[in-house]
Amino acid sequence: MDFTMNEEQVLLRETARAMFGNECPPSLIRDAFYDVTSTGPEDARTFFDRHLRDWAALGDAPVVDLCLFMEEAGRVLAPGPGWVNTSMFLPLLRLIEHPLADQVAAGEMTGTVAVCGSDGYWVLSEDPVRSFVPHAKEVDLVAVLSAQNTVRCVPATELNLQEVATLDRSRPVFQFDVPVGLDTTGVSAEELAAVLNRGTVALAAELIGVGRWLMDATLDYVRERVQFDRPVGSFQGLQWKLVDAALLLERADAAVYFAAMCLDSDAAEQHHAVHVAKAAAGAAARRWARDGLQSLGGIGFTWEHDLHLRLRRAQASEQLLGSASWHHDRLAELIFSTG
User: Fold this and answer.
1) Euclidean distance between the first and final Cα of the chain, in Å?
2) Cα dihedral sign for 188, 190, 194, 196?
3) What is the pLDDT of residue 119?
4) Are 155 and 141 in contact, with CB atoms under 8 Å apart?
5) What is the pTM (predicted TM-score) of this model?
6) May I ask the CATH architecture of the domain 189-338?
7) Where are the domains of the chain?
8) pLDDT exceeds 60 at position 190
9) Contact 273, 259 (CB under 8 A)
10) Residue 184: what pLDDT?
């Protein structure tokens, strides 16, 4: 497969990076979710409404294009339901031919997806409870998936949403009891799996963006921090640690875009590739969060430094849609079931 970006993809990445760089400073995330100010939450909602709603149409675009955007979103921890709305909710509405799909693509409405039951496992369930539903209070609609391969869309305002405490406050998740008597639309297991795969790879791309921010911030620091009259980055013990982490991130990056290309081409190995991508991206982001924290020393532990914001996202998103160990288990099942 050819990993070279075409001109349109280069422009997409540059446009997204410039937009996030100019409009989404670290203070936006801090004021809205951590050092909460009187205007912080509203500023975050305004940012999403002004700058991210128009990107919802990427849900209809190739997965590679979506991943390029999500990687840039991951660098800045872009607020709002962009990931789930674009990568899973819109494709689900297209799948069931929902009349509101065009409005979602146009940015006029937003939605999220409810997958796991009260046990927290990311498998389709008949549990009457749905847990870890991202951004449910920020969207218009919630798509509830079931083990019977059905999709039920319900207005978010009709649900009794209870927030679940997690490490990452910038991506709030919720729990609710599924209302009875909802109209359902049946789809095939393969079609539903394709939507979940799309969301999983998009989340993996976001984790790559988180990892790249952590890598850049760490390398900048160790080049500038002087100890014993030498930059600390010149010490071999630290160099080997960071080289290993950089290689892990580069391998994960390749795995994510390979998986995206597999989904775009409907390749036979797409399910294998998705499991590898999510496991690799989660492990790489977590590794840079750990090694970055250690490399920065005392300053990395402070509330004022932006590193802890990415550490929280890396740890929490590594669990969303399945942890690395969960994806390793699913990959092993695929390999041994097919010989």
Assistant:
1) 24
2) positive
3) 86
4) yes
5) 0.96
6) Up-down Bundle (1.20)
7) 189-338
8) yes
9) yes
10) 87
